[in-house]
Every structure is written in structure tokens, then in C-alpha cells.
Design a protein that fits this description.
Layout lengths: L11 H13 L12 H4 L19 H7 L6 H14 L4 E8 L5 E7 L11 E5 L8 H16 L4 H9 L1 E5 L4 H5 L31 H12 L2 E8 L2 E6 L17 H14 L13 E3 H4 L6 H8 L3 E8 L9 H21 L2 E7 L9 E4 L2 E6 L6 E4 L5 E8 L6 E7 L4 E7 L14 H7 L18 H25 L8 E4 L1
Parallel strand pairs: 3-4, 3-5, 5-8, 6-7, 9-15, 15-16
Antiparallel strand pairs: 1-2, 2-4, 6-8, 9-12, 10-11, 10-13, 13-14
The structure holds 2-acetamido-2-deoxy-beta-D-glucopyranose (5 copies) and zinc ion.
């Protein structure tokens, strides 16, 4: 898999330029772009040099010609702001920081309640991580505008606006783009600049690039459920792990391997022809089995931000002629929409409450057999746990100071709603199962409700407790229904409360 597969349709001068550039350059591909030729050229078992943040060469002149028809950084800024003005009631424009040369890193957030914290999942797209892979930044601007133009009548666009907070960063590397090169203005490959789980390539914080720092800060501020970064140079949906512990190239599954294969397949199957790839079965690949990288953004998101990130290679040609952009948009459009929607259309979602006062408990969720924790939100204690469909899962909710609770569910194709009510840790209390509540709740429309764990000390307190509990349940059900009303998930689903 080498660089610049020549584009057959773009005329002789372009082919010449591309051929010349690939002649003089070491093989550089997008996600990886290992500058040492030995690594990508056949004998792929060689151990990996982890010290590869700095980029050695770039072909600036060739790309100047190609930039014709692409937005400049100031065009892009205008496009973002124009979008904000035109689609102000479903969007918010903000910046997560500045590039090394001081260009703001603009983000478009799309939602019917932009900027407001809600019990909804968030998804992000990040484009132009590598300066010389500009297709993503163009497609993301088209995507935002397409959603704005169509969300009133298109069901998928409407679903995204109503159920997802979609954050779009069209360019993470504006300096690299204007310099027509892969790295940032400091010549650092931003997709090697994140802290790594195996090798401290660059764990000197002061050496971290401003673009990387901005992303890391962003991940602390917004709780993303999933995301994708957009690259060029191949056609495949890449998922973690990107690096291996032994530095060798082989399949290296992360705890959520099944989930990631499902997400990556969602992208490739809705794509025009990604899934018919000959090189990558189904158009997806484990990062490390393709070639290991260290300090990448994808693994960092999964490990440190609870965010399931894919690395999408969306065009064999890193920098195709601008006239091909509308076609590339058509090829990727349904994939982008379905992937963003999947954070609400798939998986298990719900909230965690305290049995004490019915208040939200910002605990966490884990799945038996998957060594990974998904945190619930601070404000609403909502959690969003993506999982591969058609599977049985044992879901555990826990929170410091409360007794954990678990239940086994069968997740079908759509999203499932599952709330938990946790009891405080009070070692000496005797647990009693209260029968009879179930019928009452089932009549109210919830199936599979089971209430356990109400405790009391003496008979004399029973009456008082029953009254309190009844009031609590009424309040609680009231909240649940108002919550469910606006969260219409994609497909029929069971609603359960683990109380
Ligand atoms: C790995 O590379 C070394 C030297 O380059 C070679 O001797 C060895 O046979 C290779 N191993 C595999 C599994 O290809
Ligand atoms: C935004 O404004 C448009 C046009 O005024 C309107 O059709 C649409 O319903 C509004 N959307 C929301 C979410 O308020
Ligand atoms: C996908 O289609 C494009 C344009 O027709 C073509 O260049 C590319 O080789 C195709 N890729 C696959 C994997 O079929
Ligand atoms: C689970 O993952 C953590 C790192 O997140 C690791 O330290 C721990 O050893 C893993 N546990 C198991 C049982 O694999
Ligand atoms: C989960 O449920 C099983 C059986 O229902 C139980 O044996 C187990 O202790 C539970 N685990 C936790 C952590 O609560
Ligand atoms: Zn790339």
C-alpha cells in the first residue's frame, strides 16, 4: 500500500506530477506515513522505530498545483462562520484552540440544543489531521451544510439533529494544509503526537504540539461516545489498536474489538465501494495488523476519553483534483450520516439513579467480558454504551458508595434503553424484595420492571416508607416518560429499569 496511487481520470499533467512525486519520496501513506522506506515495503515484520514524530521530507511544490479549487484556511473560516449564521438555530460555532501559527481550530456543533448539556450522546468528526490530506475538510463542510438543508425532511438528518450532538472540526492542521505538508508548522506528525499506551514517544508535555493539546483539552470538556478522523491515501475504515506492545505488525485486538468491527463495517458498508476492497476484507482493518503506529489519536481517544474512534481513509488519492470532491461526497455521504447516527441508534443507553432520592448518579457502566468502562455524564447520569448488535450482554452499573447492580440483556439491531437505580452501601441493612410493585409499573407501560432492595429496620417504619417510596416512584416515572418522549431512538426497543 503505497502513496499517491495515480488517479487515472485527472489528466496528463496531474499524473506526471504524482508520478514524479512518488518517485522521489519515500512511501508515505496517510494514517501511518512511516518515513523509513523499509517499513512499508514488503518485509513488514521489522520492528518499528517509535521515534517518528518528525517528518523528514515533503513535496510542497507538487501540491501547490493541486490546491486549486480547495478552500484556503480563510475560505474555510468564512464557510464555518457562514454556516453558523445560516443554520444558527441548530448549530454553534466555537474554537478549541489555535494552531502553531495561530489559526483558530473552528468547530461546528450541530444539535437542536447546541451548546446545552443533555442526556444525549456526542459524536465528532475531525478532518485534515495531516496537512496534505485535505479531502476530509472539504467533505465536512459539505456534510454540515447538507444536514442543515435537509434535516426538516430527511429522517436520518433529522434523527442526528434531534438525538446527537455532532461536533465537526474540519481541520485539525490548518498550518500543514497551507504549507502543503503532512505535519504541522513544526513538522510534527500530529497523529504521532499523543501519549501512547506502550511507548512514551513524546510524553514530554512541553513538547506536545498546540493542535494536539487542543484536542486533549476538548476531550476533557465534551464527553464523546464515538468519533472518526478523516484521512486519505487508502480506502479503509481502521480501528484500534493502532500499536502493538511488541512493536510488531499483527492483529492486536482492543477490549471492544467486536464493537469496533461493527462500527467500522457501518462506515464501509454504506460507502460506495469501500467494502469491496481487495486489500482489506470488508473494507475494514485493525490498525496494528495493517501497520503499527504509536502516539496516534485513535487509541488515545479510546483509552483516555471513553470515545470509540475510527481512522477513516476515504480516498486512495490523498489530494485529488477539486473536481472530484462532489463524487467523493456522494461516496461517503451515507457512511458519514449512518456512523454519526449510530451513537444513538445502536447500543445500550440509559441513566443511573439513586434509590435514595431518585437523583442522578454519575456512575459508570461495564460489560461482562469487555474490560472497558463507560462513564455516565455528570449532570444527567446518562450513559451511552455502543455494542455490536445481536448479542447478549451482562451490563453492570456501579458508583462509589452504592451497591453495583447488573442485568443481562439481549441487544438487537436497534438501540436499547436501560436505566439503573442503585442502593446506597449500608452494610447492616437487610434487603427485602418488595412484590406487587411490578404489576403496577407494568400496567404503566414499562416491561420487565423489577424493583428490589428496599430495606427497612422495623415494622413501625413500614407504613412511612411505603408512602415515601410511592411518591418517589411516581416522581421517577414522571421523569422517565418525559425523558423518553424526546429521545425517540431509531428502532423499536424494550425499556427496562433495573431498580
Ligand atoms: C522478519 O525479518 C527478518 C529479517 O528482516 C527475517 O529474518 C525473518 O524471517 C522475518 N520474519 C518473518 C515472520 O517474516
Ligand atoms: C430552525 O429554523 C427553521 C427556519 O426558520 C425552522 O424550519 C426549523 O424548524 C428550526 N429548527 C429548530 C430546531 O428550531
Ligand atoms: C472505488 O471506486 C473508485 C472510483 O470508481 C475506484 O477508483 C476505486 O478503485 C474503487 N475501489 C474499490 C475498492 O473498489
Ligand atoms: C483491564 O484493562 C486495564 C487497563 O485499562 C489493565 O490494567 C487490566 O490489566 C485489564 N484487566 C484485564 C483482566 O485484562
Ligand atoms: C451479576 O449477576 C450475577 C447473577 O445474576 C451475580 O452472581 C453476580 O454477583 C453479579 N455481579 C455483580 C458484580 O453484581
Ligand atoms: Zn493521514
Amino acid at each position: 500500500m503505497e502513496v499517491s496511487p495515480s488517479s487515472s481520470s485527472s489528466g496528463v499533467p496531474l499524473i506526471l506530477i504524482l508520478c514524479l512525486s512518488s518517485f522521489f519520496l519515500p512511501p508515505v501513506i496517510c494514517r501511518g506515513g512511516e518515513s523509513l522506506p523499509l517499513f512499508r515495503s514488503g518485509s513488514l515484520n521489522g520492528s518499528y522505530s517509535v521515534n517518528t514524530r518528525r517528518i523528514l521530507k515533503d513535496d510542497v511544490e507538487a501540491k501547490d498545483t493541486l490546491a486549486k479549487g480547495y478552500m484556503t484556511n480563510s475560505d474555510l473560516e468564512h464557510a464555518v462562520k457562514a454556516f453558523g449564521r445560516r443554520c444558527g438555530n441548530i448549530s454553534r460555532i466555537y474554537s478549541i484552540g489555535k494552531s502553531f501559527n495561530g489559526v483558530p481550530l473552528w468547530v461546528i456543533e450541530i444539535s437542536d440544543n447546541p451548546g446545552k448539556e443533555e442526556a444525549k450522546p456526542a459524536f465528532k468528526f475531525v478532518g485534515n489531521v495531516h496537512g496534505d490530506e485535505p479531502v476530509g475538510r472539504e467533505l465536512l463542510i459539505i456534510l454540515a451544510n447538507w444536514i442543515c438543508d435537509n434535516y426538516v425532511r430527511d429522517p436520518l438528518a433529522k434523527f442526528i439533529v434531534e438525538n446527537v450532538h455532532l461536533h465537526i472540526l474540519p481541520t485539525m492542521n490548518p498550518d500543514g494544509f497551507s504549507l502543503r505538508k503532512r505535519g504541522n508548522a513544526n513538522n510534527i506528525d500530529l497523529n504521532r503526537d499523543f501519549p501512547d499506551q506502550f511507548f512514551s514517544v513524546n510524553n514530554v508535555i512541553s513538547a506536545r504540539q498546540p493542535e494536539t493539546r487542543a484536542i486533549m483539552k476538548w476531550l476533557k470538556e465534551v464527553r464523546f461516545t464515538a468519533s472518526a478522523s478523516l484521512h486519505g491515501g487508502a480506502l479503509v475504515a481502521n480501528y484500534p489498536w493502532d500499536g502493538t506492545e511488541d512493536k510488531r505488525k499483527h492483529y492486536y485486538a482492543c477490549p471492544d474489538d467486536e464493537t469496533f468491527r461493527f462500527l467500522a463495517s457501518t462506515y464501509s458498508h454504506f460507502h460506495y465501494n469501500m467494502s469491496s476492497s481487495k486489500e482489506f476484507p470488508e473494507g475494514i482493518t485493525n490498525g496494528a495488523s495493517w501497520y503499527p503506529i504509536y502516539g496516534g489519536m485513535q487509541d488515545y481517544n479510546y483509552i483516555h476519553a471513553g470515545c470509540l474512534e475510527l481512522t477513516l481513509e476515504i480516498s486512495d488519492d490523498k489530494w485529488p483534483a477539486a473536481s472530484e470532491l462532489p463524487t467523493l461526497w456522494e461516496y461517503n455521504k451515507m457512511s458519514m450520516l449512518h456512523l454519526a447516527a449510530s451513537v444513538a441508534k445502536r447500543g445500550i443507553h440509559g441513566r443511573i439513579y439513586s434509590s435514595n432520592n431518585g437523583g442522578p448518579l454519575p456512575g459508570a457502566i461495564s460489560i461482562n467480558g469487555i474490560n472497558y468502562t463507560v462513564e455516565a455524564g455528570k449532570a444527567f447520569a446518562d450513559y451511552h454504551r455502543l455494542l455490536a448488535p445481536d448479542n447478549k450482554y451482562e451490563v453492570l452499573a456501579f458508583m462509589h458508595g452504592y451497591k453495583p447492580k447488573n442485568t443481562t440483556v439481549f441487544l438487537e439491531g436497534g438501540a436499547m434503553s436501560l436505566d439503573f437505580v442503585l442502593d446506597p452501601e449500608t452494610g447492616s441493612l437487610r434487603e427485602t424484595k418488595v412484590k406487587g410493585w411490578c404489576d403496577c409499573n407494568c400496567n404503566a407501560g414499562i416491561q420487565g420492571v423489577e424493583l428490589t432492595g428496599f430495606a427497612w429496620w422495623t415494622q413501625s417504619q413500614l407504613y412511612f416508607l411505603v408512602v415515601v417510596v410511592t411518591i418517589f416512584i411516581l416522581i421517577f416515572l414522571g421523569r422517565r416518560f418525559s425523558f423518553l418522549k424526546y429521545r425517540q431512538l431509531g428502532s423499536p426497543k424494550r425499556t427496562m429499569v433495573m431498580a
